Amino acid sequence: MAGRLLLVCRVLVRDLRRRPTETVLLLIAITAATGTLTLGLALNEIATQPYQQTRTATAGPDVVAAPRATGPDALAALAPLTTAAGVTAHSGPYPVAFLVLTAHGKTAHAVVEGRDNAPAPLDRPAVTDGTWVRPGGVVLERAFADALGVHTGDTVSVDGRALRVLGTAVTAARTTYPYAGWTSPDSALTERGGLVWVDRGDIAALAGEQPLSYTLNLKLADPEASTAFVDTATTSPRRTVHGGELTTWQDIAEADGRPVAQAQAVLLVGSWLLTVLAIAGVTGVVAVRVSGQRRRVGLLKAVGAGPAMVAVVHLAEYLVIGLAAAGTGLAAGLLAAPTLIQPSAGLLGSVNTQPPALYMVVAATTLALTIAVAATLAPVVRAAATSTVHALADAATPPRRRRWRIWLSRRLPAALLIGIRINARRPRRARLVTMNTLITTTVLVAMLMNHAQDKPFDLGYSELVDPRAERTDQAMLVLTVVLCVLALLNAAVNTWTAVLDARRPLAVARTLGATPAQAGVGLAVAQLLPAVPGVAAGIPAGLGLYTVASRGGIQYPPDSWLLATALGVLLAITALTAIPAMAIAQRPVADTLRSTPT
């Protein structure tokens, strides 16, 4: 047993040292998939960090109560909560009016909360610019102010009354823009809106004839038991973030992390697409490596190694590369997450890298090993099943000829015939090219769909910026860049292996009368032919993927964008193939035939 283990280790080290370029390509391909998966999983782990920092800095409440009733009925409904079991402190009730705010020609829903100038024991909004409330002025939640383009010193109108902007602030007691929870006086439904604070003495005049609502902040002896407190405090809780009767701090944290949720979905879906692309790329590299090791298979079997031992010798190398890629992808995803995720303007603090959770390590390792095994199992099994004599001879498999193929080949142009014959000799490689272009085109078209959408939020009267769009665009950009790099590497590997494998067939074709130009074009055609169906299928696949993943109405990009994308992918493949194809076509036929073993 020790001897076999030593043999596996020595062969493993030898292969890694002799083929460093291929090893790096394998590492990059698997790392791209595991890194993207880790990045998507990390979003869920660290998205709540800014909220927790804001909650600590502003003495955020554990439960926020906001009854549907108004006026004295609302105050009566809130009064028992201040003395409920488990409540250790409270602030408020604070009057709330659901009005409209106009700034710089834009009108939006505004949740107007009346506050005192003195600090409260709970929910002390942190002023990020300017000063806190005083009579005749207004303080805007920072994300809302950024969406409106409002700064300290500007003048805004709240239901027709001009107020000077005293500053901006952030809070953990209500969800950030645009989910502040605006409610029409004659409806229980909530709509998107922003939060502003005014002096308590000004809110009655601003509300006019509209009855005032109220909100109450509660601190519990056990903050983690806020959900149980809500369940106990009411028999029919409506614990929704947008204006429910009782809202826990966990609900608010989840809603504040909502802008990251769409980006997370993009990265998780993208990681599976990259997995397929990585399998295609790794399969291409492994097929070349295993075919080059056919004679070693024969030697191992000649000295007594069985099929299982042969398979272990070959698989060990790729499993080690997979484990290394899992660690690299895990580290890359965790380090990239804070750069990608910028906290909402309505929160304080920043996103920091955290040690990976156990499930993230397991997910990244499982994905990396799955890619390694899925891409290598078939060629390794074929190598293990090869007879000893055939492996030692290392002879090429004779092509299968059909009468109808011969009849058709006589009527094709020379360049097209050469390209078809190259693909006929290696159909698996042609399918890898199709898969590579299919995934690449799918993601590029999905990105075009994302850019074609109108992304502002309707806040009742005007459309303001969607805070989710920036994170989604960042995620799409990261995914597209990683995918394009991996697709280019796959295309380069496919071209490289095709050039090496086609040296002898091209030399034979030239001896039969083909010109160097026809031989070079034929090799390029061999890469373009399987790419065309991949591009053709990738366009509807990208449109369908975005349509399924999106919510609500969508807009389709112009046909010119889709056509340019398809042509761009095909031109990239042509450019990658043209240079090596023409170089090999110019090589003397005699040198090629002498250097190729028979």
TrEMBL record:
Residues covered by the ABC3 transporter permease C-terminal domain: 270-385, 478-584
InterPro entries in the record: ABC3_permease_C, Membrane_comp_ABC_pdt
Broad class of where this protein is predominantly found: membrane
Cellular compartments annotated: Cell membrane
Source organism, top-level taxon: Bacteria
Membrane topology of the entry: Multi-pass membrane protein
Keywords tagged on the record: Cell membrane, Membrane, Transmembrane, Transmembrane helix
Transmembrane segments: 24-43, 265-288, 309-337, 357-381, 430-449, 475-500, 521-549, 561-585
Record's keyword annotation contains Membrane: yes
Record-given protein name: Acidobacterial duplicated orphan permease
Species annotation: Kibdelosporangium persicum
